[in-house]
Amino acid sequence: MSTQSGPRPGDAWQHMTVIGRGANRVCVIDRRDTRQCLKFMLPAGQRSRVGLRQRLQRWRAARKPQHDENHAELRAWLQLSARLPASELQAHMATVLGILPTAYGPALCCERITLADGTPAPSLYALLFEQPQYPAQVLCAAVDAFEDWLLRHRIALFDLNAGNLLVLPSDAGVRLVCVDAKSIVAGKELVPLARWFNTLARRKIRRRAQRLRERIRAALPA
């Protein structure tokens, strides 16, 4: 399947500014309230090439939208907010506000994560490969704190993607905020044992966190 060049951060998409783009979705600033962002499913021709399993997932979601990534992220947020107070979640998770109808189709509405001056918080990926600002030990300490938080609250977030983790200054240095928690409910395994058994979940989170620390140290050598 051929694909068109999809929107990139900074581009205009449906008269809104793009702030992120994944394989299947685009995230834009909400024109009605710039404190929020909207995530839209991309048209088929603008999605990234993927393997057979993901193509099957796309086929299923096209026929039943409740199986798409926006609905998965909403389900993940509802699960978390049902057992953890908002004050606890907001330290490390962007707030999901719900799915809204728009002139361009349904969108998942979320809180925007910004710095004190209102500018977008940088992703961990940007701080590794585009605009380094912190030494490796500071970012690794933030991964340590995020890993501890996930383990303490038994949050089965396995997709520790540097592009989905934003970095905010904190009293302790910096902290990570996840802006895409759908992997809590939608994983890649045919049989999701790691989401069923806490011991396996903890082991998997530790592996993913260690891999992220190794990536940080490789990108920002001492």
Please write out the topology.
Elements: E1 12-13, E2 16-21, E3 25-29, E4 36-41, H1 52-63, H2 69-83, H3 86-89, E5 96-100, E6 107-111, H4 124-129, H5 136-152, E7 165-170, E8 173-178, H6 193-196, H7 198-219
Antiparallel strand pairs: 1-2, 2-3, 3-4, 4-6, 5-6, 7-8
Structural features, described:
The chain is of the alpha+beta class. 36% of the residues lie in helices and 18% in strands. β3 and β4 form a beta hairpin. It is globular, with a radius of gyration of 17 Å.
In short:
Helices cover 36% and strands 18% of the residues. The chain has 222 residues and is an alpha+beta fold.
Write down how many β-strands occur, each being a DSSP E stretch of 2 or more residues.
Answer: 8
Order of helices and strands: EEEEHHHEEHHEEHH
Portion of residues in helices?
A: 25-40%
Beta-strand content: 15-25%
Rg, nearest Å = 17 Å
| Strand neighbour order, sheet with most strands | 1-2-3-4-6-5
Instruction: Compute the average pLDDT.
Output: 87
The unreliable regions are none
Main β-sheet description: 6 strands, antiparallel
Q: Specify the number of helices.
A: 7
Q: How far apart are the termini?
A: 43 Å
Shape: globular
**Class from secondary-structure proportions:** alpha+beta
